[in-house]
Design a protein that fits this description.
With 225 residues, this protein is of the alpha/beta class. It is built from 6 helices and 10 strands. The chain is 32% helix and 23% strand. The chain has a single domain, classed as Rossmann fold (3-Layer(aba) Sandwich). β1, α1 and β2 form a beta-alpha-beta unit. Belongs to the GART family. Pathway: Purine metabolism; IMP biosynthesis via de novo pathway; N(2)-formyl-N(1)-(5-phospho-D-ribosyl)glycinamide from N(1)-(5-phospho-D-ribosyl)glycinamide (10-formyl THF route): step 1/1.
């Protein structure tokens, strides 16, 4: 049986689309079981439905605690028993109890070179800080916002005339390449989280620095644009 993933989304879903296309590639070893959104108007849901992927919406109700919401989300995930949960633009902060339960199966993509700029407005913050490089990170998720072991990163140059909007366009291109490569590498067992020691390994070697895009080339014979 193919490696099974569930994707969590909140918005436009361009990273979900990249994963859908990667899952359909002849060399793919993973499939998408379901897409779950916390917003019923997320365009990502339409992308999933067009690909015949089951969709589910779990919206927060007035006065609902984060822990209660996460319990409901966790029950849905348990019904699928996925091999991996991918946060692809899922705009909710998860509770410590949720991340503890799923941390060995839960990854996120974030638009900065972590540990720089966790949270929001990362492109603007990079420009204001005068950074000459910016980029994206794929990481395992823990209770710290945008924390957890960084698996891989990809970077780009910040030009003198850049705006957050211009950077966002180039960042999305990197995301659509890096995220499918990481998922493919995890599906193939080339990247794995060890529950025994809490460390992440790539081809049997502990990851002490984020992997680069080139480190993942061997993980897939197909390039995802």
């Amino acid at each position: 049986m193919a490696f099974q993933i569930v994707v969590l989304v909140s918005g436009f879903g361009s990273n979900l689309q990249a994963l859908i296309e990667a899952s359909r590639a002849s060399s793919s070893v993973f499939s998408i079981q379901a897409v779950i959104s916390n917003r019923n108007d997320a365009y990502a849901l339409e992308r999933a439905q067009a690909a015949n992927i089951p969709t589910f919406v779990i919206t927060a109700t007035a006065g609902q605690t984060r822990e209660n919401y996460d319990q409901i989300l966790s029950q849905h995930l348990k019904s699928f028993n996925p091999d991996l949960i991918v946060m692809a633009g899922f705009m909710r902060i998860l509770s410590a109890s949720f991340t503890e339960q799923w941390h060995h199966k839960l990854i996120n993509i974030h638009p900065s070179l972590l540990p720089k700029y966790p949270g929001l407005n990362t492109h603007q913050r990079a420009i204001e800080a005068g950074d000459d490089r910016h980029g994206i990170s794929v990481h395992y998720v823990n209770a710290e916002v945008d924390g957890g072991t960084i698996i891989a990163q990809a970077d780009l140059a910040i030009e003198s005339n850049d705006t957050p909007q211009k950077i966002a366009q180039r960042v999305h291109q990197l995301e659509h390449q890096l995220l499918p490569k990481v998922v493919m590498a995890i599906a193939r067992g080339e990247i794995c989280y060890s529950k025994a020691d809490g460390l992440v390994y790539h081809h049997g070697h502990c990851i002490t620095h984020p992997l680069a895009m080139t480190d993942l080339i061997s993980s897939s014979t197909t390039e995802f644009a």
